Every structure is written in C-alpha cells, then in structure tokens.
Amino acid sequence: MSKQDITYGTQKRHMGMRAAKTLSNTAVYIILAVISVIWLIPFVFIVLESFRCECHYQVGYIIPQKWGFTNYIELFQKTDFPKWYLNTFIIALFTAVIQTFIVLCMSYTLSRFRFKMRKALMQFMLILGFFPGMLTMIILYRVLKDIGLTQEHAVPGLILVYVASSGMGYYVSKGFFDTIPKSLDEAARIDGATRAQVLFRIILPLAKPIVIYTILTAFMAPWGDFVFAKYISFGASAGMNVAVGLNSFLSLDQIMNKYTLFCAGGVVVAIPVVILFLCLQRYYVEGVTGGAVKG
Amino acid sequence: MASVKLTNVKKIYDNNVVAVHDFNLDIKDKEFVVFVGPSGCGKSTTLRMVAGLEEISDGTVEIDGEVVNDLQPKDRNIAMVFQNYALYPHMTVYDNIAFSLRLKKVPEDVIYAKVTNAAEILGITQYLMRKPRALSGGQRQRVAIGRAMVRDSKVFLMDEPLSNLDAKLRNQMRAEIILLRQKLDTTFIYVTHDQTEAMTLGDRIVIMKDGYIMQVGTPMEVFEKPSNLFVAEFIGAPKMNVLKTNLVKEGDRYFVTPCGAKIEVTGYKEKLLAEKGVQGGEILLGARPEHIVLADGPAENAIPCKLEVNEMMGSELHLHVFSEDGTRWIVRVPTIDLSEEQRQHLTNGADLYITFEGKAMHFFDPETEKNLIYGEE
Amino acid sequence: MSKKKLTPAIIKLVLGCIALAVAVIFAVMLGRFLNGEIPVKSPYRSGSLLFRYVFWLALSGIAALLLLGLGLREMIKSSKFNGMAKANGIELKEEKSHRLQDFFKKIGHGFVNFFKAIGREAKDIVMTFIHGDWKTKISYLVMGFGCFARGQILRGILFLLFEIVFIGYMVIQGGYWLSMLPSLGINEQLTNQYDPVTDSYIKVPGDNSFKILLYGVLTIFFIIAFLYTWRVNIKQNRIAEEILKSGKKLRSGKQDLHSLVDDQFHKTLLALPMTGIVIFTVMPIVFMILVAFTGYDGAHNGMNKLFHWEGLTHFNEILNWSSGTKSYSATFGEILVWTLIWAVFATFSNYFLGILVAMGINKKGIKLKKLWRTVLVMTIAIPQFISLMFVSKMFAKDGLINLFLLNHNIIQLGGELPFWEDPVWARVTVIIINIWIGIPYLMLIATGILMNIPADLYESAKIDGASGWKQFSKITLPYMLFITGPYLLTSFIGNMNNFNVIFLLTGGGPTNAAGSSAAGNAGYTDLLITWLYKITMGEEAKYYMASVIGIMVFVVVGVIALIVYNVLPSVKNEEDFQ
Fold first, then answer.
1. Neighbours of A145 (CB within 10 A)
2. Do A266 and C561 touch (CB under 8 A)?
3. From CA B200, how far away is CA C561, in angstroms rounded?
4. Annotated domain spans of chain C
C-alpha cells in the first residue's frame, strides 16, 4: 500500500466517524424536538382554550373561532375564584414561612447533633412515613371540625395540617447540611460561639440555597394539594383552594358551562407560580438533585 | 499559657470501639508537644478531647489545674487550627480572624489592632478583604493560624495543619510554625502523622499506636533510645532495618550474627547490655540505614549483598541491597564519601559488602518487641 | 445448659417458628392461587386468564426489583466499583449487621434489650430509693422536691407543675376517659325523649365513642409522659447527689436556660417539630390503627350511635380469600396487584426514560441545551392538578382528542377511543401520562448525576474499546443505580401512594358499568390509597375498613422497604456521604 493510500484510508475513517456523529446528533435533535412539542402541547391547548369564547364546553378543534377575555371576566366576576385564589395564596405564604422554619430546625439538628435518641428518632420517622398520611385525615377532620377550622374556615386548619408534620420532610436539607464540613462548627465553637450562634452566624449564611429551595417547595405545594384541601373544606366554597375549586368546574353538572373557565383559571394559577419557579430554578435543581443523591 | 494534664483519659465510641486507652500525660507550661502515629492511632481523638469536641469517656483533662471535662469548647480558652483550615467561607479574611473577638464583644478598635497585627506577623495583610476561596492553600493556613493567634488562649492546638499542603510549602510552613512558636510563647499540642514534623517541631514527642502511648520523649530520646520496635521503625527515614538474628555472649563481649557475619557490639551499648544482664539468644536486630557502611571487601564482620536499586537523593544515596538469605537492607551513603570510581561501581546487580557500627545497633525482644536496653519493664 | 446460652436458643426457636409459619402461610396461599381458588371470584372477570397474567407480572416485577438490588450489591462489592465509589468520596463498608438474616436477629436482640432495659430501670429506681438521702426519697412522691431542696428552683417548679397538672387532669377528665376505653361507651344517645319540664321531645346525649377513643388515647400518652418525667425526676436526684458528693456545684436555673441555646440546643430546636409530629401524625395514626379494631363507620359515628371493639373481624374480612365476589378481600387482592404493577411501571419507566432524555440533552455536540432543559423544567412549575385535570378531560369520551378524531372522520360516533372506559386502555393511559408527568424530574436528577460521573471512567472505557451501549450499561447505568438507590425506593413508595395522578386522571375508574360495583366502589385503576379515600368518602363511610387498608399499605410498603434497605448498600450509612 502506498503512503497516499494510507492517508486516504484514515481520512475515510474520519469522515465515516463524522458522518455517524452527525447522524446520531440529528436523531437526538429530532427526538428532543418531538419531546418538547409533546410536553408543551397541553399547556398551549389550555391557553388557547382559555381564550375561546364561542363555546364553554370541549370542542374538536384547537384554534378558537372567537377570541376574547370573556372566560377570564366571568371567572373573576361570577365565580368564587378570587376567594379561592386568595385562600391558596394565604395558605402558601404561611406554609412557606412556618414549614421552612420547622424543616431547618429538624434537619440541622439531625445533621449536627449526636444525641442519644438520634438514630432511633430517624428510624421512627422513616417508619411513620410508611403509613398513608391520608388515613390521619379522618380524625384530623373531626378534631378540626370540633375546633371550628373546617368548611368556611378551612384556611387556618389547612395551614395547621400542612405545617404540623413537615418536620418529617427533613431529608433533602439534612443532606445539604451534611455537606457543610463539621470542622466549621467546631472552629466556631472553639472561637467562642454557642450552638445557637453557630447556627445563625455560620451555618445559615452558608445554607442559602437550601433555604430558598425549602421555601420554594413549601410555597408551591399548597397550590397543587387536592385531597387534604377537599377533605377539610368539605363542600364549602369559601374554604376551598384553587385545586378543589377548579375541580368543581369539571363535575358533571358544571362542566358544560365552565370547562373554558377551568382553563382560564389554570392559566391564572400557573403564571405566577411558573415565573417564581423559573427565577429560582437554579436552587430547585440543586435541591432536587442533591435530594436524590442523598436519599 | 498553661499546663495541660491528662489523667487516665479514655475514649470509647458508641459501637464499643476503644479509640484511646488510658492516656496519661503531663504537658508543662509553654511546652511544644507533638502527638504522632499512623492514622487511626487515636492522636486526633485525644486532641479533640482536650479541645472539648469529643466527649471524654473516662479520666480527666485539666487545663491550668482546672478540670475541664464538662466545659464547652468555648469555655476552655483554647485555640485550634484544623487540617482543612475550617475558614468560614462567607466571611472575609478580616472577619474570619475577628470572629472570636466579636463574639466576646471586644471593641472594634481593639479588634482592628489585633487583626492587623496578626496579619502582619503572618504576612497576609494584603489579603484581609478577600474571601477564603480566593486564597491559596498556604495563605488559608496562615489565616487559620491568625484566627487562633488573636485569641490569646492558654493552649494552642493544631490538628495536622500541614497535611493539606504540598511538600515544598509544608517545609516552609514548618519553619514558620517554629518562628510563630517563639513569638507566641504558649503551650502547643500538635498532631501529625509525619515523623519529620514531629522531630523538627516538638520539645517532646508522644508516639501512639492503636490508642496506646508507645513512648514519650524528646526527639533525641525517641530516636536514640526507642523503647520498642514500633517507635524504632516509625521514627527516622528511611525506616530502620530490622532482622531476626542471634545475640551471642562470649565472656564479657557480645556479638550479633546476621547473615553469617559476626559483628561485635561495642561502646556503651555493650556496657548497657552487660548491666542489664542480657544473656543472648534470638533477638530482633535494628540498624538505621545511616549507620550501615559499605565495607571494602569480604571480612568476618561484613555481609555480602547484591545491589538492586540505587536511589540518588542528591546529598546521599539510598541503596536497596539484598543479602544472601533474602533480607532487604536499605543503606544511606553520603554522596560526598564516595569516589567517582565507587559511584560507578554502584550499578544494579553489583556485589557489595555492608557492615555496621557496633554502638549503633538496637536490640529488641522478638516476642514483646521491647527494646532490650531501654524498654520499660 | 447454662442460663446465658438458653436465651439465644429460645429466641432462635421463636424466630424459627415465625419463619416457618410465614413460609407455610405463603405456600398455602400460593397453592390455593394455583388451584384457582384465590382471586377467582373477582368482581369483574371470574378467574380470567388476563388476571393471572397480571398477577404473575406483578410477582415478577417484585422479583426483578429484588434481583436488581441484590445484583447491585454484588456489583458494588467488586473492587472496581469500589474504586469508582471512592472517587466520589463514598466509602463502602462491609457491614454484616445489614444482611437480611441478621435483621431478624436484630429484632430478637431488640426485644431482649428492651426488657433488659426495663429491668435495669426498675433496679435503678429501687437502688436510688435505698441509697438516696431524704430529699431524694421525698421526690418519689413530690416530684421536684429534691430540686427545690438543693436550690435548683427552676427545675423544681417545672417538675412540680407537671405533677399537679397531671393529677388534676386525671381526677377531672382522664379517669373517666380511661374507664370508658374498654367499652367505648355505655349509654346510647336517646332521641324523642319526653321532657316534662319543657313539655317537648328532646335528645338526651349519651356517651361519645369517638371522643372516648380519642381522649382515651390522649390520656394513655399523657400517662406515659408522666411516668417518663417521674423517672427523669428520680434520675436527676441521683445525679445531683453524686455531683454534690464529688464537691462540684449544681447547675443554676440560669445555666439551665443558657444550655438550651448551647449544649442542649438540639432540644430547643426539636421541640416544635416533634410536638407537631406527635400531635398531628403519631397520635392520629395510633388512633386510626385502633379504629381498625372497632366498628366506627358513617352510621356508627360514636355520637348518634355508639361503636364498639370488634377485634380482628375486619382484618378477617379483608384477608379471607374465599368470601364472595363483591367482598373486600377479592377487591383488595386485585387492587393490591394493580398497585404493585403500577408502582413498578411508573417508577422504572420514568427512571430509564428520564436518564435517556438527560443523556440526549447532555450529549456532546447538542446545542441549545438550556432551551431543551427549560422546556421540560417549566412543566414542573405548573401545578400538577391543572395539567392532570386538563389531560384527563382531553382524553375523555367527549374530550378534545375524540372530538378531533370524530370531526375528521377518523372514527365514527359510538366508536370513540375508550381511554377511560376500558380497563386496559385506562391502565395503559395512566402509565403513559405518568411518564409525561415524571420525566422532567428524572431528567433533572439524572443530569446532575451524569455530570458527576468521573470523565476518566469513560476515557478508560473508550481506550479499552467499549462501544456506546457498553459504556451505558457498564458505567452509566450501574453508577446511576448506585447513587440513586435510595431515591428509587422512595419514588417506588411514593408511586404506590400516588393519589393525585390516579384520582385526578381517572378517579379510579372505570367502574363496572352494570352497577354491580366492587367493594367500596373500587374501579380498575384504583390504587389502595384511592380506594381508601373512596371508602371514607362513600355513603357507608366504613372508616374501620379504610383503617384496615391503611395498615395493609403500611405492611406492604414496610416489607418492600425492609428488603431494599437491607440489600442496598448506599441507603444505609449516612456518614459515608459526609
């Protein structure tokens, strides 16, 4: 074989590799494009349907024949939606603050202190988590009803229920605390800090990402909760959150007139949450990934 | 500036692993004591018990005559430097150093004076406004030392402060710690796994293994009079050569018979053996590489060997040689003692004869591994 | 035989008997199943072939899960993998105590240790009394007396206050609740009683079983708390005596308070979260477990009509395989099987597809990485109930898809695609929609982990000539599985209890059109958890049945978790990650 042939051969191989790469990359692009479309389509549909004025029920086409804001106007004027929205917002706000506080207390303690019952406590909470939480709903409902925190007054009741057991969800932030070197605590304690000062002056400033993650998830959860909200508001419109309220639009007797209102409501609920989420996306991703790795 | 006294200190972990057995040590005021030993020997645990970071399972720790077992670290008036520096990442260097003073509510102008003074001593003045992440390893270590310095504490604890640095920087920082010690003039407890650091820094060295103290002594003592085989092998680099052989007593004279050679024990060693009434028999013979010399040729006291590896260290050569029975010896030969011819002769496979000075030998009991001369009963 | 050797022997014997019993029960059940006796009388398809298929699928799914775990463990044990783990700062320790067989030993030891501990405590209480001074002795009756006498006023006040509150409560309230607990109420509420004073018919309230059970449980908790405090009180007396003897000073009240932000800071931090958990989770769960043994339902709600202890009747109802077609037991079997199938599919389909999507996005040479990711991440942000309800309607019989197909004459009226009407269609559809929901999360998680796989692993594999598939199966997948082992377990359990997806998509449907609905109105896509919900919300509101199902869920989840935890190495040692 001459020298030229050899160069030609390697060249050909190079080109083969490049071609294969282009081919596989193209395939990946196509798949990604298809996936993106599939994932976005339902949301595009919701938005389009929310602007459809000619009919309140489902139709067999996507682009509205008559565009307009009537659905939104009706939603805010003729239904309890503003009330539900306010309820949910209040619940989300309180839950975010209190739950974050509780989760941080719990996870910091379990990450940093080595007290006698620590292992037992963690195992106990793990086992406790195997019970379906919904079961406790039956009794909590009756107890809350006795205190008068159900139906129209479901908002404080719901906050209480969401927040009370949130200590059990300490895993993700404990995982984060575990990654902060213990020698920092030790150095600070030798420097003269009490345990409380260690927490407030050293650990918390370093835990900003996980604090934001905890606030974000705690704030978002009440927007999507259905079971507990439905149970505790129990048919009283004034105590519903958006999920339960909008779900009532889809019941058999209402769907004919309110399907497009549901879509409009969905859009109104989604927009602020999505904006908040996209702003804080970085922290969310950190938390989710860390949480999965740490278990 | 205080004495530290540990009496029967024990550490038992929850899983019943005993990390430190019955540790007794009296550290005098302004003394520099080094705990040294392989990893897992309990040296860090002991230090952390002194610091209050680890609970003391049994026994007492006294600082300046006061029992501190139940005191929180912050109430023990100690300063500590950690292996990974443990600088607060969200604070500037200045804030890092000032942190302990601020907790004590010292006025800001005093803090300023102290911090800048410490920074000047350590040569980090230009970095005061930086965050730790923007500093190199050596600079971070200086900040950590500065943080400990400004506290004017009774005892200065250092937990492997140099192990995260590269070799060159480590040598430099070692020298700086010696200087620092002269300036601070306080009690130091220093933990390391590196025997060179221990030898160069310590007034006294505590050599530990598996939670037990093996020997306590000045660098010279532990080097010249190792009380057991572990200390003998741990101190000194390259490691001491050890082989099983016989000690023969002929009248008043003692001989060792490694690999068929017969070498007389001379000088004070002979006297000490006689004083102790050692009768001879099987022993472990130790000879440091630097005490082995090349013999000119076959002789009664020379061991014939084959050279396998010749490591050129610059000022000296490390020769790895094997005697006929397969024992491996390391010999340190100063380069300057060798003529050009001799050096050329030292190629792989070359035949050599080695012998050692009679007074530089160490003798250990093969069972207890204790030094026959210096070992405690 | 000496005494010391006897105890382990007894434990072994007892454990052996338990194991044997479990094995026998299992064998008998398997035998009956093979004979076609067990879920034959299913409310929907009597002993149909399909059902058996499904059953075996579920069984093999579980087996696969087990094998996967075991295989993983072996892989991780091999030295090459060890190096990989170490590169990521994870130390693997060979811990024998985590083997499955040792687990049962541990349970045995746990019991023994528990009784030993009680024995020790009792001994300590007696010894403290004998050796203690008069201050200590009086503290046995008047809690906190020793503290007062020794100058620890703050502690003394707290102890004494607790004792007063406890005795007061027991006298005024606790005694009544406790005494009623065994009967759960004696006097039924009477309606239409003639009241001569007002000359009208009135209600005479009777006992309230619900309250008796609730406050009975509370009282028992309170008594336990009191006993514990009493014990602490005694212990503190002993410790105080010892401290004073050694010539040291006791802590003052101020020091006690200060220690709450320092060495006892964990108690301060845990106080609020633990109170919440005890009141809102532990006590309700204890209460609901007890409900399973009573007759509490919508009709017997304790107020209008009493309910009583009924023992194991309801457990019998749900486990008695031979009872009739619409029985709870038949329905339970079928729903359990579907729940497991669902959990296996939902977990693993998301997992593998999520990894693939993440690998696609992170492939070298792919541009606009951020765009692709953001598109998927955005779907996480939109509250799930919106997308679920919308999609649910989209696939309905008169939903967007069917109408669209009708309009374009692809299908005929009456020939709509039965997404939610046909059992098989519905089950497949929920699984697919769940993939749509779940992939973005998995993509995020997988992206994070993929980036952390040391690049030199791939480089050395390439030099060794490994193909793309080999690299995936030998490096990427084992690594992912190793790192995400615990996550897989949690997400499996989460999927078993995935109420939202099922309930908002199908509402558990389709149910039997003929109206001869299964027990608790269960449908084909109902999971145990949605079934439980339906039962409590249904007309009969059989709370006791819901409670039994809840306990069953606990047992199933517990068994799975137990197995996985004892097999997977990466779950266990939290310190390894630090």
1. 15
2. no
3. 55
4. 36-94+318-569, 132-309
Query: ipTM greater than 0.95, yes or no?
Result: no
Higher-confidence position of C534 and C2: C534
Contact predicate A259/A75, CB 8 Å:
no
Chain C nearest CA to A51, separation (Å) = 15
The CA-CA-CA angle for residues C117, C119, C124, to 5°, reads 95
What confidence tier does B191 reach under pLDDT thresholds 50, 70, 90?
very high
Contact yes or no for B73 and A190 at CB 8 A: yes
What is the spatial distance between Cα A156 and Cα A206, in angstroms, rounded to a whole number?
A: 33
**pTM attached to this predicted model:** 0.82
* Rounded-to-5 percentages of helix, strand, coil across chain C: 70, 0, 25
Q: Does domain A74-294 have CATH number 1.10.3720.10?
A: yes
Provide the β-strand partners of residue B156. Answer: B79, B188
Burial B59-79 (b: 16+ CB within 10 A, else e): bebbbbeeebeeebbbebbbb
End-to-end CA distance of chain A: 60
Q: Mean pLDDT score of chain A, rounded to an integer? A: 85
B67-110 pLDDT, tens per residue? 888 888 888 889 999 988 899 999 999 999 999 999 999 999 99
C199, amino acid identity: D
User: C519-565: per-residue pLDDT in tens?
Assistant: 777 888 889 999 888 888 877 888 999 999 999 888 888 888 877 77
Beta strands in B253-298 (DSSP E): 253-256, 263-264, 281-287, 292-294
Chain B residues within an 8 Å CB radius of A190: 51-53, 73-74, 78-80
Domains defined along chain B, listed by start:
4-233 (3.40.50.300), 235-364 (2.40.50.140)
**C514: exposed, middle or buried (C-beta count within 10 Å: 0-12, 13-18, 19+)?**
exposed
User: Could you tell me if B63 lies within 8 Å of chain A, comparing CB atoms?
Assistant: no
| Residue C500, phi-psi category: left (phi > 0), alpha (psi -120 to 50), beta (remainder) | alpha
Residue found by looking up tokens 């959990």 in the block = C343
Across the interface, whether the CB atoms of A142 and C282 are under 8 A apart is answered no
DSSP label at residue B193: S
Question: Whose CA is closest to A280, among A210, A233, A230, A176?
Answer: A210
The distance from CA A227 to its chain's CA centroid, rounded to whole angstroms, is 16
Q: Do B82 and A186 touch (CB under 8 A)?
A: yes
Select C36-94+318-569's CATH number: 1.10.3720.10, 1.10.150.240, 3.10.450.50, 3.40.50.300: 1.10.3720.10
Domain coordinates in residue numbering, chain A: 74-294
Encoded tokens for B361: 């030998």
- Which residues contact residue A118 at a Cβ distance below 8 angstroms, ignoring those fewer than 6 apart? A110
Q: Using an 8 Å Cβ cutoff, are A264 and A75 in contact?
A: yes
